[in-house]
Amino acid sequence: MTKLLVVATGNPGKLREIQAYLTDSGWELTLKPEELEIEETGDTFSANACLKASQVAQVTENWAIADDSGLQVDALNGAPGVYSARYGKTDEERIARVLRELGDTPNRQAQFVCVVAIARPDGTIALESEGVCRGEILHAPRGSDGFGYDPIFYVQQLQLTFAQMTPELKRSVSHRGKAFVGLLQKLPHLNQ
Ligand code: IMP
Questions:
Q1: CATH number of the structural domain 3-189
Q2: Would the pTM of this model clear 0.70, i.e. be above it?
Q3: Which atom of ligand 1 is nearest to the CA of 70?
Q4: 145 annotated active-site
Q5: Which helix (DSSP H) or strand (DSSP E) does residue 21 occupy?
Q6: pLDDT at residue 2 in the model
Q7: Please, what is the average pLDDT of the chain?
Q8: Are the C-beta atoms of 114 and 176 separated by less than 8 Å?
Q9: Bridge partners of 134?
Q10: Alpha carbon of 112 to ligand 1 centroid (Å)
Q11: Phi, psi of 184 (to 5 degrees)
Q12: For residues 27 and 10, what is the distance between their CA atoms, to the nearest angstrom?
């Protein structure tokens, strides 16, 4: 039986991406109502993913899915973290700020984190999955694909930045890819 799952985002691109991960999962995905805006007031990725999924589920009286993600730089004590999207006005400004704050610091270690949460129609959280991708912050952007901080995030194992990877390759190593693999493993055991 196909069940409706409301995606707690206003972004059709994110709907397509989540759809790609959940193909053949038995869920039919739909975007949340446009007028329903949820403020990300949590101070962890988990708190934000859960509050978005929970509020959209309660308002729509359907199952809902949400994710929250961001970049954590070790030498910046985990910044920009949950403020990743708000660290500047444009991707260029956000990248420039991280590079400025890091300066010539030799410790370039960083990670992308993504938490995905699914809420039941009553707003309770049915499951949560986290994915982490470790990498290094370069001194200057490299590559032109992807979005956000992709051009400065270098994955040692592949010797490429996220912005130099095909979408398929990025999915196979990324925080979001790993979070969804974990989610898919947990889906059959969903306690309804
Ligand atoms: P959100 O999960 O849509 O709130 O996005 C958080 C922010 O983190 C994005 O706006 C990006 O700045 C950053 N971010 C999250 N995932 C990625 C990624 O895969 N590549 C580059 N930036 C990312």
A1: 3.90.950.10
A2: yes
A3: 8
A4: no
A5: helix 12-21
A6: 66
A7: 93
A8: yes
A9: 111
A10: 8
A11: -65, -35
A12: 19
